[in-house]
Structures are given as structure tokens and as C-alpha cells.
From TrEMBL:
It comes from the Bacteria. SUPFAM superfamilies: Class I glutamine amidotransferase-like, P-loop containing nucleoside triphosphate hydrolases. The keyword Metal-binding does not apply. This is Cobyric acid synthase. The lineage of its organism: Bacteria, Bacillati, Actinomycetota, Actinomycetes, Propionibacteriales.
Amino acid sequence: MGSLLIAGTTSDAGKTTVVTGLCRWLARQGVRVAPYKAQNMSNNSMVCADGAEIGRAQWIQAVAAGAEPEAAMNPVLLKPGSDRRSHVVLMGEPWGELTARGFLTERAELAKAAFAAYDDLASRYDVVISEGAGSPTEINLRQSDYVNMGLAQHIQAPVVVVGDIDRGGVFASMFGTVALLDAADQALISGFLVNKFRGDASLLQPGIDMLTSATGRPTYGVLPWLPELWLDSEDALDVPVRRTSGSAEVLSIAVVRFPRISNFTDLDALAVEPTNSVFFTTSPAEVRDADLLVLPGSRATVSDLEWLRSMGLAEAVAGRVAAGRPVLGICGGYQLLGGAISDPHGVEGGGEHTGLGLLPVATVFAAEKVLARPARTAYEIHHGVATVVGEAAEFPGGCRVGNTWGTIWHGLLDDDARRHAFLTEVAELTGKPAPDGTVSFAALRESRLDRLADAIDEYVDTAALMKLIEHGPTASPFIPPGAPKTV
Ligand SMILES: NC(=O)CC[C@H](N)C(=O)O
């Protein structure tokens, strides 16, 4: 049984990518490997075959590993509904709401479930590759941590710290990440990975050598800047944007960037077509002018509806619909295109609301969350049950009136035939090019996972890393000052 925890000097250092690449690389060596992240904070999630909801990143990592995605791979998922509150999904199911403060007191229960999930996975797989969150050296949170060093201590796993060299300061942050941990935690930090490097590797080498001598720990590899290795978009909203200048040759797709946007991985399927240019926007002019407008999923339909109105975007959407110009609403975006929105159980703050009235649809928020896989690529994650209450044509998971489409399903456009048919119709309406029908979303994802594993193979000392995974941490020196005293 082998184990490794990939931590990061910062968020966005590339932990998710590295874990994904390692999962695919290990799977290729014939290793039965599972990904794991004790706690993920994201509004991008996925429904597993057994109905459990997990973070989208862990789902993709499982796909990379050739393992069946399951709740234990991401036992705690926090879905932020506001800056201070999160909806908690525990072992794939809704658990309740947590405030930033309440979180400290509830952590023990979540930690227990997360460790049990890890132990269960570890009993069924040869290797588990865990992903930390943020930095392992958030010294104010160390005591109640179960995602980074708290987890590493529980499982006695070696930890490799990934740093983003593109942002600069990578040596100082790697050194500091080790030096501000106590001796027991430092003993598990086994080395580093430099990520997002562009430039001349020979210029970097002296720095790597100095880091080794300053910390007594090796750097396992230097991964190059690989922006083309897009996976499903992660939490950074800038990821899926593939903007080519407003050319007559492409179909421009504006996606409203709701403050509580969720499951925006739906846009990846649109972005894979070279005939499309997909971009996020909050501008009424862009909403008006794009060839296709998408209202994506939302964690908080009612408050994003209010926001849409306050931004002057509601009129822009209505103007498009009146002019017969294409609009697609997905899940929360579908709900708010409809009329009545009622929230009798206070799921989203309660009350009766009125949507944009552009589709004959009424939504009632149910206390129970719907988690379902209604079709091959489609999945449902919502409380609001949308019912067609007037004249409308059929559309999978929703309905259509004129050139306004809505669906409660996510992932609908991951289905190549459906995406091609939908875009061909939009292209006919707008006089823009239609997709040629050759792009396979699943094949593209597979090839990217493979190229990520190729990069691991090429740029990482995989022999040394395998040794670490199999045999655990080796003795590394203590770097003063260690964990600062609480004051
Ligand atoms: N995934 C979504 O867009 C969810 C929409 C809405 N917040 C609901 O729960 O029904």
C-alpha cells in the first residue's frame, strides 16, 4: 500500500493537475490508484454513478486513474453560497450549512468521516494520491486541519510541495512552507515539485541545488508551463475562457458570470469547438451582442436573479429573446428564465419570487436535493424542481420556446451529437460557422489526461517518486524556527 500527499505553496500552484497526471501515470504502470481530497471547496461538482456528489476535480482524477468515482474520494465538499456560509456535502450527500465560525466546532466530525473514507479507499487500492488544499502551512488553522498535515499525520504519508514558479518567490515559499511547521510535520515533507516553469532550465538549476542544500530535501521535477493541458475548468473562472477576437468567422458565446456561478464546466464542452469563442461577461452590451448567450448554473438562483436585474442584464436578456436571438439557460440559469420561483422551505432564503418570464416554467425549491444521472453525459444537482407550465417544445431536461432553450441538466452538451446538433442550429440562426462534427469531447479529455501523464513521465523523477510512495518519508533535517508559538 502506497501513499503520497501533494500539497502546494499556494492555491492554484497546480496540485490538482499534478495529482491528475500522477493518477494517469500510475494507472499506466498498472498500479491500482485512487485520488483523494479530504475536503474540497468548490461549486463545480459531479454526480457519481451511485448518486454521490463529489468535487469535479476528484471526479476527473478518478477518470484519469481509471477508477470508478465515489464519495470516499472527496468525503467533504464545501459549496460556498456566500462569503461566510457554505453548503456541506458529506460522503456525497447534503449534510447542512456551515458558517465560517461554526466550521471550527464542526470540523472534528468532518475530519472523522474524512479519515474513515481515506482508510476505506486505502484498503481497496494499491496507492492513494491525496491532494491538499491551499498551503499546508496555514499556521492559524493547523490545529483543526485534516486536509493537509493533519491528514498526512493520520496516514503517515510523505508530502511533496508543489510551487508555481510563474508567480515568482517559489524558493522562499517552499523554504518557508517547511520552516514554519513543527518537527513532526517537517519530518513528512519529503521534497518539492516546481510547476509552470517557462524559460531556460539551466538557469533554474542553481536555485534548485540551493533549495536542496538549504532544506535537505530533493526537487522531484520541474514541470513546464502547459496551458494547453486544460482539464475540466477548476475554480479559477479564467480557466475556460478561450477568447479569439470578435471575428466574423467564429460563433461568439457569452456566458453570464453570476456571482454564485456553479458547474461552469458545462462551458468546456462549448469551448472545445474551434468554431466557437466562449467568454464570461457581466456587460449588458456583450450579453446583447454575442451570437449565443448562456445563463449557466448557480448556487443561489434567487440572489443571482436579483443581481442580474441590478446589473441591467435582465433587460439585455429579454431584448435578445424578443429579437429571437439564441439564449440557453442551464439549471439555475434555466430556473431564472422561467416565471414563478417559490422557496417554501427556505433553501435559498425562502419566499416567492418572479423570474424573467421568458420561458413558461415554474420552479419550486424542494427540501431534498436532486442528485441524478438522467442521461449518458448529463447530471442533475439542484433543489429547485422546474416544471413546464405552458406551451413549449421539448428539449432534454427542460423545454424550448422560439430560440430560448432551457435545461435542468448539466453536462448535456458533453454529448457530442447533442452539442453538434444544438450548435448547428445556432449557427444557422446567426449565420456563423457550424461545428464540423468531428470533435469528441471525451476523446479530447482522454488525450489531455495522457499528455499530462507524458509530462509527468518526461519532467519528474518518477523512479524516486515511486520509491517515496512505496517506502514513505525518509529522514529529512529539521529547519528552524519550526512552528511559531501561539501568542
Ligand atoms: N446547479 C444549479 O444550477 C442549482 C440551481 C439552484 N441553486 C438549485 O439548487 O436548484
